[in-house]
Fold:
Amino acid sequence: MSNVLKNKKIVKQLATGLAVFSFAFIGVIGTASAGKIVKRQGNQGDRINQGIATKNLTKGEVKRLHKEQVKIRAMKKAAWSNGRLSAKEQARINRAQNKASKNIYAAKHNNRKR
Structure:
């Protein structure tokens, strides 16, 4: 085999290996992001439940906060409908979770009791 053919074969193998690695890396990043979203949803649910236990949240506030969590879950489900989570979708969900977090804090600290 000539050197040119050997070099082409090596380049082709390297390109294939790089492509496989890139897709695997993107998959790992998407999965890690999903894990953060799920963990954060759980934390927010715990914060709402803690507000219920300490009677810092009224029934109306609980209903509104739970409804907001349901909307975020629906956003997550729609984002994952194609099997992966894009950066744009992740940012959108993150903004919604930031807003929900602020709403939970505000509802727990507004001096309204159950």
